[in-house]
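Exercise 7.
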Amino acid sequence: MTFEKSRKKAALVVNTRSRTGEAAFSEAVDRLEDLGVEVGATFAVRDPSRISETVKGILDGGVSGEPCSLLILGGGDGTVSSVVDLLAGTDVVLGLLPLGTANDFARTLEIPTSVAGACDAIANGKVVDVDLGLAGDNYYVNVASVGLSVGVTRALSPQMKKRMGAIAYPVAAIKAFFTHEPFDAKLSFPDGDYEPIEHERLLQVAIGNGRFYGGGLAVSPEAGMDDGTLDVYTIEMGRHRNLFGIARYLRSGDFINYEGVEHYVTKRVHLETDPEQKINIDGEVVAASPEEFTVEKNALKAMVPESSNAARFDG
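Solution. The predicted structure, written as tokens, is:
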């Protein structure tokens, strides 16, 4: 579905603490205006913890006295994840300026990472419906996981991501690997599509809604954001040579066929771990096991380039 410029009641919110946020804010305002997108309200937010509060205020108060129909959000995956709870199930369309380090949500939806390209997608693209994952009642766009990824998140600092860019992720992964403690997990499938299964000495369990995470790693070769399912995988700690083999195929997603990896496609899964594990949701550690994960079909409307085949509009 196309989105007529004349019907857009747009607000722009940019996380200026994101990797390129400070420089991108002014450029985005100018480019959107040149492309005919009338932005009725702009917010350059320096404190990331206030992004959600700012968006809520826009949705409650509208833009120039009228309901907001287009929220243009500048930031990384964490910024997106922090506001999808507010956008889920509404008619407000998300236009994204990918300004983070990983930008995996944008990568999944084939949104350009340049400000110019992203603004063009907002002005001249199409609206699609995308799924959202749920960890309990917490919406997420990319991946929820336990294990190594939590250590990676803790090893990453804003300064490290700003200085090193996407290379910060593998550097942090190496640091996290050498301090990782294996854990056991039980996966149960309430819909009965798989029998309950227990895994021992795990490196990681991930429950993916989108296709990419961690700066371009693929959840699986076929994972998508509009298929109404979650891709779940487990990786055994195993021998180091096996893990190095798995690491070679993380970007393609073909690692799911490797020894020591199990893969499930489902709409609902319950995760228990021993010992309790913190849960990384789109790069933020915000929950702990046990937890149930589900998918909400077509929960979010987003602008993508006309050429994107990542999702479609279902009405």
